[in-house]
C-alpha cells in the first residue's frame, strides 16, 4: 500500500514537473508565448475590434454608437450604461426580435458585458454580423471598468 | 486472443482525448489564458503560466496512458485534471458566468450542460483508469516463463 502511494506520488510529480518544464521552455522560445508574472495584455491593445475605455467613452458621449449590454437580465438590472439596450447573449433571438429594430445597418454597435474576462460579447458578434450589422465592436472593459472610471451607471429594468 | 481489460480500453480512449485536447490548446497560450481568466478562479497573474503549462500536462498524460508507461501517475494526474475541470465549470455556472470551456482549443464552446457532461465523463474515465492501475500495481507479478 505504502509502496503504491509512493509510486503514485513519484510518477505524478515526475509527469507534472517535466510537463511544466517543457511547457515553460516552449513558451519561452515560441513567438506566440505569453509573458509570465504579469496579466495578459488587453485585446484592445492589439485588436481594433475591441475598444479601450477612452474610445468607448468618446463614441458614447458623441452618440456615435448604439450600446448594447449582453449580460443576463439580473446583470443588466444591477447596473448598465445609461441608454444601453438589453441584448442578452443567452436569449439573443428573442431579445433581437424585441430591440433589433433600433439598430440600423450603418450604426456602429458597441457590445459590452462584465469586464475584460467576459466572453459573452464575443459570442454575440457573429450573430449580429449574420443579421447584417457589420460595424460591431466590443468595449472590453465592460460595466466593471465603466463604473470604476466614475462613469454613470443606471440601475433597473430595460429601457 | 484475449480482450484487453475494460480499464485499459478506457485508459486508451482517455489518453487519446487528452492528447487531442492538449495539442489543440498548445501553442495558443494567449487564447487559453483568456479562457482561464474568464473562469475568475485563479489570480490574473497565474493565468499565463497555467496556460503555458496545462496543454503539455494533458499531452504527457494522454501519451503515457496510450503508451502504457507511468500509467498510475498519469491516471492520477488525469483524475486531478478532470476534477479541476468539472469543479471549475460548475463554479462558473453557479456564479452566472458563461466562459468558453477551453476544452479543445478553438473548437471550444461556452460551458453548459454539454460541456459539464463531457467533463464528468472525463473524470469518470480517469477514475476507472486510476482504480484499474491502482489494483494492477498491487497485484503480484506474473510468473516467469523461465
Features:
heterodimer, A: 159 residues, alpha/beta, Oxidized Rhodanese, domain 1, 2 domains, 5-stranded parallel β-sheet, 5 strands, 10% strand, B: 146 residues, mainly alpha, 5 helices, 0% strand
Topology (SSEs and partners):
The complex is a heterodimer of chains A (159) and B (146).
Chain A: H1 2-29, E1 50-51, H2 53-61, E2 66-69, H3 73-78, E3 85-86, H4 92-99, E4 109-112, H5 120-130, E5 136-139, H6 142-148
Parallel strand pairs in A: 1-5, 2-3, 2-4, 4-5
Chain B: H1 6-25, H2 29-39, H3 47-67, H4 71-94, H5 113-138
Helix pairs in contact in B: 1-3, 1-5, 2-3, 3-4, 4-5
Number of helices of chain A: 6
Instruction: Give the proportion of residues in helices of chain B.
Output: 55-70%
**Rg of chain B, please?**
17 Å
Give the helices and strands of chain B as they follow along the chain.
Answer: HHHHH
Order of helices and strands of chain A: HEHEHEHEHEH
Domain module tally of chain B: 1
Summarize the amount of helix of chain A as a percent range.
Answer: 40-55%
Low-confidence runs of at least 5 consecutive residues of chain B: none
Main beta-sheet annotation of chain B? none
CATH superfamily of the largest domain in chain A: Rhodanese-like domain
Average pLDDT figure of chain A: 91
CATH topology of the largest domain in chain A: Oxidized Rhodanese, domain 1
Our count of helices of chain B gives: 5
Record field, number of beta strands of chain A: 5
DSSP, total strands of chain B: 0
Architecture overview:
The complex is a heterodimer of chains A (about 160) and B (about 150). Chain A contains 6 helices and 5 strands. Chain A has about 160 residues and is of the alpha/beta class. Chain A has 2 domains: about 1-35; about 45-150, Rhodanese-like domain (Oxidized Rhodanese, domain 1, 3-Layer(aba) Sandwich). Chain A is elongated. With about 150 residues, chain B is an all-alpha fold. In chain B, about 70% of the residues lie in helices and about 0% in strands. Chain B is elongated, with a radius of gyration of 17 Å.
Amino acid at each position: 500500500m505504502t509502496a503504491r502511494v509512493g509510486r503514485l506520488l513519484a510518477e505524478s510529480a515526475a509527469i507534472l514537473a517535466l510537463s511544466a518544464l517543457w511547457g515553460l521552455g516552449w513558451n519561452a522560445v515560441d513567438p506566440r508565448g505569453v509573458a509570465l508574472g504579469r496579466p495578459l495584455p488587453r485585446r484592445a491593445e492589439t485588436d481594433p475590434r475591441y475598444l479601450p475605455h477612452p474610445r468607448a467613452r468618446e463614441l458614447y458621449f458623441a452618440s456615435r454608437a448604439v450600446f448594447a449590454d449582453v449580460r443576463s437580465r439580473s446583470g443588466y438590472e444591477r447596473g448598465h450604461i445609461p441608454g444601453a439596450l438589453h441584448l442578452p447573449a443567452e436569449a439573443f433571438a428573442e431579445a433581437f426580435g424585441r430591440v433589433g429594430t433600433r439598430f440600423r445597418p450603418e450604426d456602429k454597435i458597441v457590445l459590452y458585458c462584465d469586464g475584460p474576462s467576459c466572453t459573452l460579447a464575443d459570442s454575440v458578434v457573429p450573430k449580429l454580423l449574420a443579421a447584417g450589422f457589420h460595424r460591431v465592436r466590443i468595449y472590453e472593459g465592460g460595466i466593471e471598468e465603466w463604473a470604476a472610471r466614475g462613469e454613470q451607471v443606471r440601475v433597473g429594468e430595460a429601457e | 486472443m484475449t480482450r484487453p481489460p475494460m480499464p485499459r480500453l478506457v485508459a486508451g480512449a482517455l489518453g487519446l482525448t487528452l492528447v487531442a485536447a492538449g495539442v489543440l490548446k498548445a501553442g495558443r497560450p494567449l487564447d487559453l489564458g483568456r479562457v482561464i481568466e474568464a473562469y475568475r478562479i485563479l489570480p490574473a497573474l497565474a493565468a499565463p503560466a497555467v496556460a503555458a503549462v496545462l496543454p503539455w500536462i494533458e499531452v504527457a498524460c494522454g501519451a503515457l496512458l496510450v503508451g502504457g508507461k507511468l500509467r498510475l501517475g498519469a491516471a492520477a494526474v488525469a483524475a486531478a485534471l478532470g476534477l479541476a475541470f468539472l469543479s471549475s465549470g460548475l463554479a462558473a455556472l453557479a456564479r452566472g458566468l458563461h466562459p468558453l470551456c477551453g476544452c479543445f482549443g478553438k473548437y471550444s464552446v461556452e460551458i453548459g450542460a454539454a460541456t459539464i457532461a463531457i467533463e464528468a465523463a472525463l473524470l469518470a474515465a480517469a477514475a476507472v483508469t486510476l482504480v484499474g492501475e491502482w489494483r494492477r500495481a498491487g497485484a503480484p507479478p506474473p510468473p516467469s516463463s523461465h
